[in-house]
């Protein structure tokens, strides 16, 4: 779903915890793969759902939500073909501490 995150304006958040979502600039939209694996995922945990889950766009979301199968066997949510991640340094809804070079805040 979409939510306001302070000075960042409207961003994508996960419905369950309303934490800000990010995309990794090294991922390729529509490739069906994530380039953030191994140690990367401890700082940038992927937004995952149980295998076989149906994901849908929440309020304020204008793009396409889908899933991919990660190399570790989990199912990751994508937005317009890009895998979605949380940032481990965000501890509350509305925080955008993961706004780093190489990462982009996901927006509807």
Task: Provide a descriptive summary of the structure in words.
The chain has one helix at 40-43, and strands at 2-4, 10-12, 22-24, 48-49, 65-69, 75-79, 82-83, 103-105. It is mainly β. It has one domain. Strands 4, 5, 6 and 7 form a four-stranded antiparallel beta sheet that branches. β1 and β2 (10-12) form a beta hairpin. The N and C termini lie close together (8 Å). The model has no long low-confidence stretch (mean pLDDT 94).
Keywords:
globular, 4% helix, mainly beta, 4-stranded antiparallel beta sheet, two-stranded antiparallel sheet, 108 residues, 24% strand, 1 helix
Give the low-pLDDT segments.
Answer: none
Number of helices: 1
How much of the residues is beta strand, in percent? 15-25%
Name the overall outline: globular
- SSE topology string: EEEHEEEEE
Q: Mean pLDDT score, rounded? A: 94
Largest sheet: 4 strands, antiparallel
Q: Report how far apart the termini are.
A: 8 Å
Beta strands, count:
8
Measured as a percent range, the helix fraction is under 10%
Structural class: mainly beta
Q: Which value, in Å, is the CA radius of gyration? A: 13 Å
* Integer tally of domains: 1
């Amino acid at each position: 779903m979409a939510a306001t995150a302070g000075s960042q304006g409207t961003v994508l958040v996960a419905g369950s915890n309303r934490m800000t979502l990010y995309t990794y600039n090294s991922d390729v939209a529509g490739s069906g793969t994530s380039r953030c694996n191994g140690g990367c995922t401890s700082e940038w945990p992927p937004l995952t759902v149980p295998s076989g889950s149906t994901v849908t766009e929440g309020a304020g979301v204008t793009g396409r939500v889908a899933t991919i199968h990660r190399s570790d066997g989990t199912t990751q949510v994508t937005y317009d073909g890009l895998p979605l991640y949380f940032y481990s340094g965000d501890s509350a809804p509305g925080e955008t501490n993961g706004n780093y070079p190489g990462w982009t805040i996901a927006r509807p």
